Queue: 4 jobs
Job 1
Amino acid sequence: RYTGDEPFASPDEARLFVENYDHYQRYGYGRWAVINKASDQFIGWCGLKYTPAIKESDLGFRFFKSQWNRGYATESAIACLQYGFKQLLLPRIVGRAMKENPASIAVLKKIGMSYLQAIELGDQPAALYYCESPSILVSLA
C-alpha cells in the first residue's frame, strides 16, 4: 500500500526475486531480513539499496502489519545507518516515504533524517529525507 511497488503475483515470483537478488555481489550491500530474536521468526526487512542511475543509497524497511508499532523499524533503521556510515563510509543515505504513511515518516525523522523535497513513488505523493552526517550516530547510540 505504501511502497510504490507492485506486489508479487505469486509465491514463486517472490522466490525468484530473492534467488536473483544480486545487490550484495554488485554493490557490496543490500536489504536484510529482520528476525525477531525471541521467536526466531522473520518479521520483515530493512536495509540499504544502491541505485546506480542516481548514485544514491536508500534506506528502506517493510514489516508485517502484526509487527508495526513495536520499534522494529526504528531499531533496524538505526543499525543500517550505523553500518552505512561506519563500515561502508557512505557520504549520504536517503529515505523515501509516501505522504499517506505518517508512521514511516516518523521513523525517518526519529533516526535523524531531514526532509529534502516532495517526490512521487508509483504516481503517489511522497517525501524524500536524507542524512549526510555520521555525527547523527552519536545521538542514536
Note: Residues 43 and 127 are 25 Å apart (CA to CA).
Job 2
Amino acid sequence: FPAPPECFVGREEAIREVNDVLAAIREGRTALRALQVLSRSGVGKSSLLLKLAAELDAACVAVDGRRLRTLPSHEACDVVLVDHVEAASPAVLDAILDRIETTTSRALPMLWVLARRNDVAAAADLGRLNDLSRSMALEDFSPDEGRVLLERLEEELGEPLLLELAVA
C-alpha cells in the first residue's frame, strides 16, 4: 500500500521538481502543464502523489486511473494528480489529454501530475501524452532513504527487523 503522508520518506528532489514546475506555471515562465512521474512498479509513485496532495500549497484533486470512468470537475483546483494513468481506458486517457491540451492552450494556471509505470505496456498509445508533458524519473530509494525507511518500519512494528531484511 502507498505510504501515508505522515510516514513518507525521502523524495525531496521529486517534491522540489513538482513545486518548481508549479511555481513556473504561476509566474508565467513555462507553457508546460503536465508532468509525468515514471518508474517501475513499487518505487513509490502513489506515495509521492499522496504526499503532494497533502503538502502542496495548492488546491489538489487526486484520482486513480484504474477506476476512472469520467473525469471529475477540476475547475477550482491548481493541481490534478492522476495515479496509474497507464491503466486508464483509452477513452478516459483521451479525455485527460484533451483537458491537458485545453489547459495548455489557454495557459490556465494548473498542473497535471500523472504517475505511470514504465515497466508495463499501457492500454493506450502514450505518444500524445509524451508530446504534452515532461517526464520525471522516480528512482529507487537511496541507501540513506532506505535506512530511514527501515527504521520507520521497525518503529511501526515495535520490534527490530530480521537481520536478513535489514541488510537486504
Note: Helices lie at 12-26, 45-55, 90-105, 127-132, 143-157, 163-166.
Job 3
Amino acid sequence: ERIPIKASHYKVIAFDSSDPTRMDLHPRGHWSSRRSEPTALMLHWGGIDAQHCFNVFNGDRKVSSHFLIGLVDSEVVIYQTLDIAKKAWHCGKHNDWTVGIDICQQPTLRWFSLYKKKKYDVQHMENPTNRGPQKLITLDPRLVKATGEFVEDLLRALNIQRIAPSSFSPADPKQYTVLSHAHVSKTKFDIAPWWSMIFDEEEA
C-alpha cells in the first residue's frame, strides 16, 4: 500500500524508487515479519550521515531501521530503507510494534569539526538531560525541522494519534506513540538531548 506523505521540508526516497541513490535493506535480511501493524514511532540517532548509517546497517551488525534522515547537499533527504510492513531490528523487544527512524547526525563533540567542515549549522550545547555526556552538539536546524514534520506526517499517514511521554523509562511504553530509544532503555541516550529541540520547534 502506498501512503502519501506531505514532505514540505524534506525529500523522500523509497527503497523501490527509481532514484539511483535509493537505499534498500531488504536484500540484507536484517528484518523479520510483523505479527501486527505498528502502533508507534521510535527515534534514534545513527551514522555520521545517511550513507554511513546505511552502510552500517548493510554490514554484519544485524541491525536496521525503516527510515534514515540526513543532509545531502544541504537538502534533507529521508530514505525509506524497509517496508513498514516488515519489522526492523532497531530496539529489541520493542521492534514488533514500532517503526524505526534514525536521525543521521552524531551528537558527541568528537564530530564537531567534521560537521562544521561539511557546512552543518551546529553548536556546542549543554546536555539538558541526565543521559550521556554533559556537552554535546546541537542538531542542525534543517534536521530539527524536517524530523518534527516527518514524525507528524507519518503519524497522520498511519492514522496514529501523537502521544509522547514526559519522562524517561515510562512504566508502560506501549501507551505512547512517539518515543526515543532513551524512553525504553536505561543505557541508551538517543535522542534524549535533542528531544525537546525537535518537538518544541515543531510545536512553535
Note: Helices lie at 50-57, 112-117, 141-157, 181-184, 192-203.
Job 4
Amino acid sequence: NHGFTAENIELYWGDEVTDKDGPGLRSSRGVATRESLAAGAEALRASLGPEDVLWVFVFGHSHYDGRHSWLNIAGPDLNHLEFGRMFEGLRCREQVFAITTSASGFYLKPLAAPGRIVMVATEPDLEVNETLFPHKLVRALASPPPYLELDVDKDGRLSLFDVYLWT
C-alpha cells in the first residue's frame, strides 16, 4: 500500500514458520534472534544508499528490568542500547523507526539521529506496560481514517507526526 516492493521488505518472526502460516509469514527471513537481527542490520548498512528509504517496525513484547528495556526474541533477549547500536551510522535519505512494544520509550535515545523519525508507544522512564499502540498504528497505515480526522494538527498536510498523534 505504501510503495514498498516485496523484495524490499524483511520480516523476522518469533517462531519457525509452518505450512499453516499465511504468505506474509512464509516470506519471512527467519526467526528473530540477536544474530539474525544483527545480520539484517549489517546487510542494510551495506546496501542502503544516500537516496534510499528505511522504515523499521518492531512489534512484539518487551520487558523492563529496572535498567533496560529488553526486546523478547528467540534466544537471549536484546536490550534497547544494543538495538540502537545496530542502526548507528546508517546513511539514507529517510529513516523511520516505530517501536510499538511495552517499555518502548527507552529506545528513543539510542535510536536518535539527525533526520531520523523515531515513534515509540510509551513514555521513557515512566510507562512500561503493554500498549494498544501497535494495533492502532497498523490501522492508521493500512486503512487510514478520513483525511480531516488524521490531520490532527490541522495544518493541511499529513505527516508521520499526524499519524503518531492520531495513534
Note: The radius of gyration is 16 Å.
